[in-house]
Amino acid sequence: MSQAESTGFERILEYLRQARGFDFTAYKRTSLERRVRKRMQTVALDDFDAYLDHLQVHPEEFSLLFNTILINVTSFFRDVEVWDTLRESVLPVLAAVRGDDGPIRVWSAGCASGQEAYSAAMLLAETLGLDAFRARVKIYATDVDDEALAEARRAVYNAKQVAEVPPALLEKYFTRNGGGLYSFDRDLRRSVIFGRHDLIQDAPISRVDLLLCRNTLMYFNSEAQGRIMARFYFSVNPGGHLVLGRAEMLFSHASMFVPVDLKRRIFKTAPKVNHRDRLMLLAQAGREDGLPQYPTHGRLRDLAFEMSPDAQIVLDPLGAVIAVNSTARRLFAIAEADIGSPLQDLEVSYRPAELRASIDRARAERREVAMRSVPWESGGAVRFLDVLIVPLLDEDRSLIGMRVSYSDVTPMKNLQEELTHSKQELETAYEELQSTNEELETTNEELQSTVEELETTNEELQSTNEELETMNEELKSTNEELQTMNDELRNRSTELNSNNAFFEAVFTSLRAAVVVVDRDLRVQVWNAGALDMWGVRPEEAQGSSFFTLDIGLPLSELHQPIRDILSGSAVHREAMIAATNRRGRSIECRVSVAPLVGRDRAVTGAILLMEDETAQA
Asked: Domains, the chain, ranges and CATH?
């Protein structure tokens, strides 16, 4: 990508962040650029600046771009081996650890349209039983795609989407509706909570026993992946499990998670030693009996008073201030020097509320006095406080002091005002409804006469219907022919999939590194041997220009051999090149270049076979 293109691409990302509030800076640039270009091709634009103008003129384009970037690929029980392992090995252990009545919390991060969360719900219901599931399990399913979340909340899927659900579970947990749609069980649905959540910006869900985040991390860069994994480590309970996708590993986060089943990407949290644990160990080390030391009860009472969310002031019988908690000091600007002063000398005695008369009344009547919804302007906004003055009495009901507390009831006051406003709107709506009802009665009479006219028209439609039935028979015959053609196409598709799987198995089984490029020198095949030799994953290499890859092989020495093969001037080229493999070891790499010949005998690309001659020696 040229400098001008790079600048234009960054302008698009900045516009999405400022205008739409979504920050894509943590996503992999190559993948992100590829998804944006795909959307640009759809709208027939090939310039980033032109596409930015298109976004600004057509706001609806944002949703389409967003859906293109966020590839919502999911299904029920995707990668069935992973779910089998969860059912057989992980969930029974989780149920045993949590006991007979302990809560179980599951987080499905990047849930897309909800199939993964509902799959987990079905397995947990099978493991625990329906009654225990409803009482103990909460499943939090999150994503950044609002459209996908809306589909997940509906919990309605077509026959193709539920095809991977085992028949027994489909029968037990789905209800078939009209039109070939299936609705997920309502009782289980109540335990699944969907919400929008950004893994980079939003706080993680805590105290999770099982975290599912499959094929989501691979779209983020390494720095973002590190931040997300740290949040996951905070989220998952000690002994909890993390499940990743097939394309994701934890090479750099072994201190946080240890593998349980590496092949299926199931991990367990490493033991956590937090600040509280360390402080408890230090306390135990200072006592001979090995028991932790705790603050005295008096200290606990002082801390409870000091940290109370309500502002509180304590007075002695003469009205002098003897204690003020942190909330009161912050709200009313009471300094430490004011402790011991008469309350009447402080501004808080008359602002936000006049206290002196109420204190005298509470002292005389030996009962609490309340002032409700006292307005107080603070920081440019009006807040409402409930002020409660409570006499403090000893066992003989002798007055030993007074306590003044302030509770912020602004939210309640706002709710009351909104309720009053809603009642007024409801009364207005009721009057409008009454008027509309009268109009409907008049309209009903008019409709009655229209019905009579429609009955006459119905007879005419009856004859037309007979003609349509004849046409329907013809369409059925045509449909049968189309069904036959569709079966043939399906058989060919199956054969093609089988051939693709065979070729993929061949490339995977080869120990040597095999790379296939097209005539534009873009990588089409990158096998497991190439991953092992150069450390570049197939999804990173495929689609990229071969000569832009950052590997330990001096690619400049392959320019001429590949040109000779693509031009047809040679049928085979071979070179010995000094290189450095993924482990940093110097090797002698034998590179053989052969043409990739199509059906018409034309050269469509080149096949590169790379072998470590040092290892063979």
From this structure: 3-69 (1.10.155.10), 80-269 (3.40.50.150), 303-408 (3.30.450.20), 508-616 (3.30.450.20)
